[in-house]
Structure formats: C-alpha cells, structure tokens
Amino acid sequence: MSVFKRSYTMRIASLRSNNPKNIKIAEQAHENWKHADNIRDQGLNPKPKDIIKHTNLEYGPDKKHNLIDVYRPANAKIGKLPLIIDMHGKGFVYGSRKTYQFYCMHLARAGFEVVSYDYRLAPKYPFPCAWDDTQMAVRWCVKNAYRYGFDLQHVFIIGDSAGANLAEEYLTLYTNPIAAAKFDFKRPPINIMGGVFNCGVFFINKILGYVNPVESTYYTHQVTQHYPDFVHIDNYIKRPFLPVFVQTASDDDMINQSFRMDQLLIDHEIPHLYKIYGSDDFPREHDFQIDQSDPIADRCDDDELSFFKRLLKRENVQNLNEKQLSQITI
C-alpha cells in the first residue's frame, strides 16, 4: 500500500508524462548512461572472493523491479554489522543495484553490510513509485535483519543523484514527526545515524521542465499539481535532522543543488560536512564516485566511510552540534 493514500486509487497512467520530447530525451539518456557504465565497469570482477553476495532477493510484489542485493565482507565474524542502505541514482529513468554493485562492494569491505535495491523507473513509473519502493526496501531490511546480520541500531543511508533525493525524503520524514504525519510516513524500528548525499538532486522546482527534462518524467507536471508539498520536501528539513555528508564534483552539472543543500543545512544549524571533489586540473563530473578505477573517487568513498565510522562512536548523533561534528574530520 502506498504511503500516499491516493497513489493507487488514482491510476499511475494519469501521473505519467505526456510530453513526448521529454520522454524521448529520457530514453536516450538511459541508453547513453548504460553504454558509459558498461565501459566504466569493464573488467571488474562481479564475484570477488572477499565479498559474500545475496542477489535477486524479492522485497515487494513487483517481481521484475522489487529486487534487492546484500553485500557482506567475507572475513567478517558471525554476527551483526552496521548497515548501509544504498539508493541508486541516474535521473529516476535508469540505474539499478547492478549499476552500483562494485561501489557497494567497496563499501562492504570497510566492515559494513550493504543493501542495494531496484525501484520502478520513469517514464513508465512516475512519482511516487520509486518513493513507495524505497519504503518497502527499508521495511524488508527490518524484517530480514536477523537472517542477514543487519545491525538495525547502526544504520546509514547513501543516495546518489536521484537517489540522494530519495535519501533526502527518507531522512526528512524520519526526523520530522510533523512531516511524517502529514505524509502518512510510518517510522520503522531502526536507528539511522547519518547519511551521504552524492551529487544530489534536492530542489525539484529548480530543475524541472527545460532545465532537466529527464527528471521531469518522474516529477511530472501532473505530480507537481497533485503533490506540491512533497515535491518541496526541502521545506521540512529542520532540526533535529541527522548528520549528513554532502559531496559534489568540480564539473557536476548539478553542483548548484549541493551548494543550495549546504546553505539550507547551514541556515537551520544542522551539523553536516560539505566537500567538492576535483579541480580545474583534475575535473570530476556528476556521480564520479561510482568509478572504482578513479583514485579521486576512491578517496571520496573512503572519506564517506570514515564519516560513518566516526559517527558509530557517537551514541546520540541527533544531539551533535556544529563544533562536535567538526571533530569528525575526513
């Protein structure tokens, strides 16, 4: 059942984009990104001996799209490990747990359980499909914690690009009871300690239409009319929030989104870290951190893992102030 009571009583078809130009651009982006990802990951080993993988697990009713993978370091002792829930990106029209598998295995090697899930994609599945699937994926983690060794008292969220939007939504409703009640969000019995926003898309009203026709096939005009408050979820980011690491890249075409998020967090005195990777001499682009052959991406990933490990040493991260967070150096 959708968190939005009207989501499934209202036909999904009525929320889909009716802009053929945007749909065509989204379909072309899908093909272009798929080609680039195949080149990037060529030669990488999908079944390394140092990682235990559980793949193609069903977390929801859609047997094609509601699938989830679990990664665990093979040298880990029997028992629970801190959990990272990865929310993949690629404009809500492309991307999958397979696209992010090498990135997730890198995270797992640092001593974490990592889950990565597929969600239904636009243009066929507009908002709130990916959001509904995200909630189901988290609930699956709760139900299967014992089986796979998830430590639900030490959970972290990572979102890339469009996935950072999902992560923003989840952390906002998780920490804001007023927003949770407004959007019928049921907080699960887990303790989220912090999150990472990689090259995120946050302020939807700033990117739709001509600026970004790809995301406009998920947050369609019809969606913005029916769910205006949720499209502006950034209005509900208030203290207490959770510590987040906001990163972007020197040549990220969405860099202003991360800059705005940094400023919003500053304005609300929410402890966070903000960093731009790359330079004029060594530029990096949107979602560079996935590339396991890139030393700058490797440094970024390790910085974020270091951020998580330092948060693990804190008992109540929601009570951190800016001075205390500044001690969590990277």
Provide structural commentary.
This protein has a single domain (12-326), classed as Alpha/Beta hydrolase fold, catalytic domain (Rossmann fold), CATH 3.40.50.1820. It has an eight-stranded mixed beta sheet, sandwiched between helices. The model has no long low-confidence stretch (mean pLDDT 92). The relative contact order is 0.13. The protein contains eleven helices and eight strands. Helix 2 (101-108) links the parallel strand 3 (81-87) and strand 4. Helices cover 34% and strands 17% of the residues. The longest helix is centred in the N-terminal third of the chain and has 21 residues, at 20-40. It has 330 residues and is of the alpha/beta class.
Please outline the helices and strands.
Blueprint: H1 20-40, E1 51-58, E2 67-73, E3 81-87, H2 101-108, E4 113-117, H3 129-143, H4 145-148, E5 150-160, H5 162-175, H6 177-182, E6 192-198, H7 221-226, H8 228-231, E7 244-249, H9 255-267, E8 272-277, H10 295-311, H11 322-326
GO molecular function: hydrolase activity
Domain Alpha/beta hydrolase fold-3: 85-169
Protein name: Alpha/beta hydrolase
CATH fold type: Rossmann fold
CATH top level label: Alpha Beta
Mean pLDDT: 92
Give the distance, in angstroms, between the N- and C-terminal Cα atoms: 41 Å
Low-pLDDT regions: none
What is the percentage of strand-forming residues? 15-25%
Query: What is the number of beta strands?
Result: 8
Order of SSEs, N→C?
Answer: HEEEHEHHEHHEHHEHEHH
Q: CATH H-level name... which superfamily?
A: Alpha/Beta hydrolase fold, catalytic domain
Major sheet: arrangement of strands: 1-2-4-3-5-6-7-8
Number of domains: 1
Shape: globular
| Sheet/helix structural class | alpha/beta
Q: Count of helical segments?
A: 11
Q: How does CATH name the architecture?
A: 3-Layer(aba) Sandwich
Q: Describe the sheet with the most strands.
A: 8 strands, mixed
Estimated helix fraction: 25-40%
Our Rg estimate from Cα atoms comes to 19 Å
Protein name: Alpha/beta hydrolase
Pfam families: Abhydrolase_3
InterPro entries: AB_hydrolase_3, AB_hydrolase_fold, Carboxylest/Gibb_receptor
Domain Alpha/beta hydrolase fold-3: 85-169
